[in-house]
Design brief:
The protein is an alpha/beta fold. It is 32% helix and 28% strand. Helix 3 runs parallel beside helix 5.
């Protein structure tokens, strides 16, 4: 799979001695949506700003479509669109002029048809003559995305793209990001909303204390680290589990009416069929059965809190 972005051995240490990034190495594949997760202060924004050339790395190399982001800064930066967390724009300028001006900053020739295309794609066409100050928070966020796309970059960074956006607009934004991916744009996003990454990302990276502790395809991560649970509601309460059911991961509720079997996706000790077979042999009848699997949020919390991952 072709890489559009390569980060190799990036470190960032500030003059105060604070080490913000520790030896980050990461490849981003063409056309993917990559979600970077981490708690506040983990280094997500510092990493993005370093890749985009806003922050200078203390050590390491970043290449964007083969161009070094230091030695060939203009060429590398021209391939990147950045939507920061903060809404930086001229409040008293129109949407059209704001987006057109951003295109000009990258030395691109005027192209009204392209500006029209992205404004329509972002549902901003009807607002093209409105001043930014008159727009809602969600619309202002769309304007920021339009500015980032104005110079036709191949890579788009979205730093907390739905911060301060209500649930309805957040889902609209998800659809927007998927639409951008379909046009061939590679997207890297940071987010505090775990369901956002679970909904959209092809791959997920987890950063903690400036260290990239995990990078996995989302499906593989869910499969490898996800926990599953079988819950059985019994007709009659049990005083205790029969000896045949005293197994790792099997427990009985305090009221004796629920048997729970917790197991992981890749290393279950016994199968569900075996549990049901034991119940039948013990003449234990159940009235309801259901299974569940941990969400990406559960996995993220366990990764961030797992002290064994601290190097």
């Amino acid at each position: 799979m072709k890489n559009v972005l390569s980060v190799s051995g990036i470190n960032k240490t500030y003059q105060s001695g604070f080490v913000a990034l520790h030896d980050i190495t990461l490849d981003i594949h063409s056309g993917e949506i990559f979600a970077l997760l981490g708690p506040n202060g983990a280094g997500k924004t510092t990493l993005i700003n370093t890749i985009c050339g806003i922050v200078k790395a203390s050590k390491g190399v970043v290449t964007v479509l083969g161009s070094d982001n230091v030695d060939e800064y203009r060429l590398a930066r021209s391939e990147i669109g950045l939507v920061p967390q903060e809404l930086f724009t001229d409040s008293f300028e129109t949407v059209w002029n704001t987006v057109s001006f951003s295109r000009g900053l990258f030395g691109k020739p005027r192209n009204p048809l392209y500006i029209e295309k992205i404004l329509k794609q972002l549902s901003l066409w009807d607002k093209r003559n409105n001043k930014i100050i008159t727009l809602s928070g969600g619309m202002k966020r769309r304007v920021m995305i339009a500015k980032a796309l104005s110079h036709e970059p191949k890579i788009l960074f979205l730093d907390e793209p739905t911060a301060g956006v209500d649930v309805s607009l957040r889902r609209d934004m998800w659809e927007l990001v998927r639409g951008l991916q379909k046009t061939g744009v590679t997207i890297i996003l940071t987010t505090h909303y775990i369901e956002e990454a679970e909904e959209m990302a092809d791959r997920i990276g987890v950063i903690r204390s400036g260290k990239l502790i995990l990078v996995e395809p989302k499906a593989d991560l869910m499969q490898q680290l996800g926990k599953k649970q079988l819950t059985l509601q019994l007709h009659e309460p049990l005083l205790q589990l029969p000896p045949a059911l005293i197994l790792n991961g099997v427990s009985l509720s305090v009221d004796g009416l629920t048997i729970t079997y917790n197991y992981d996706s890749h290393g279950e000790q016994i199968g569900i069929a075996k549990i049901l077979e034991i119940l039948a042999a013990e003449n234990i009848n159940f009235k309801d059965l259901h299974t569940s699997q941990s969400s990406l949020e559960d996995i993220f919390v366990s990764l961030v809190n797992d002290q064994e991952l601290i190097a």
